[in-house]
Amino acid sequence: ELSNVESSMDFEFRRSAFVNAGYVHVDENYLGHTYPQDRARVFAQWTAWRPLAVDLDAWAGDAIEYDAAALAWGESYTMNVTAHPDPRVTTTANVVRYRLARAPRGGDYIALWLVGVNTNAQFTRRLSVRVYPQYDSHARHLDVNALVGYVIQPGTVFYAGVNSGWDKDLAHSTRRPTSRQIFAKASWRFAR
User: What is the rounded distance in angstroms from the CA atom of residue 112 to the CA atom of residue 133?
Assistant: First the structure.
């Protein structure tokens, strides 16, 4: 059960920068107890230069530590950066920092970084490639996904790709593979 009150204000600067800042109050009922939570929140976006766009979404304030069923301090920062270095190439980096702690400067229940960089390249009208590495600092896990697409005719496409994962072996300070998957997929459009 959840009740929510939110107040915010929007600011726009020269049509290329936008900021929304506000306050959120949430009453969350968990295991028969109501936890009042107050958070500050900000979202900012910058799009002044066409080949680059940046946005930041952040909040800080009260949160619930569900394992201990206790009120805690939480903060989350998400930054997305999209770049178009070439009309046929798009790269989007996504960085998330999440922290749940006893107090703002107290010991952490959990603190992690999630980082991913998705790059898409369209070499021709028919041939495209996507590569997406992702890292989770809490699990110490790295994933890399790659996909090649080839359009035979509109609606008929062949895909081939690979998904791989590695975990850090703390005892030996090396990475060991956790998954490897190679796949192919075809979709065919039957024209009349």
Answer: 17
Q: Are residues 24 and 6 in contact, defined by beta-carbon separation less than 8 angstroms? A: yes
Cβ 183 vs Cβ 160: under 8 Å: yes
Dist. CA 40–CA 57, nearest whole Å: 11
- Between the alpha carbon of residue 149 and those of residues 99, 165, 166, 185, the distances in Å are 38, 21, 25, 9
Contact call for residues 24 and 36 (beta carbons, < 8 A): no
pLDDT in tens, the chain (192 residues): 577 888 989 999 887 899 999 999 999 998 889 999 999 999 999 998 888 999 999 999 999 999 988 999 999 999 999 999 888 999 999 999 999 999 999 899 999 999 999 999 999 999 999 999 999 998 888 899 999 999 998 889 999 999 888 877 766 677 777 878 899 999 988 866
Which structure tokens are listed for 146? 């790659």
**Cα gap 138→110, rounded to integer Å:** 8
